Amino acid sequence: MFPDLLRDDIFRLETKRLWLRWPRMADAAAIVRLAGDKDVAQMTERLPHPYPPSAAEKWIFESRVGNAQGSAAVLALTLKTRPEDLIGMVGIHQTRPGRAVLGYWIGKPFWNQGLAREAVGELVDLAFRTSEVERIDAQVRVDNPASRAVLEDSGFRLEGVGLVDMPVRGGAFDCQRFQLDRAGWMAAQQVRDAALLHADCVRSAG
Length: 206
Hints:
206 residues; Aminopeptidase; globular
């Protein structure tokens, strides 16, 4: 799905405040601490609580394999000021030709700063610009408005609500299903470009 450019572990994405890079085995302790936090894990479908170190190492290995094969783009979030220190994760995984699923989490000390939105927007743009993906799906629990806002701000559209079985959480939970297709993404890009052009014109006139 993803081109050779992304399949090298020196690949890195830059945003205003973040570096997004491949996960490393050295990130395991941060994943155990941050992803294993109850408040973080309970809003996800798969993050265990507590998070065993062996599970973190296995997840890192599998993510690197997916990146190398081009079937996924799974990247660690780090602040530019501390590029070695993982603060969260964002990933897009191919589910079938032309379709992919988005997942993300960010450590509790970094909530409410817009960092997840910054990372998700950058990776979604990369997916549509460099791969053949035509639609990206995502879901959030109905009691997770912050995560829902990340998707809405990134252009995702609500498709419906339904129960999702989450064995690691001990049952089924109401979740909102979102999707963003290429046409929707391109329309959002046009709106964004027009807004930037208008801002440039205003500055020039001033």
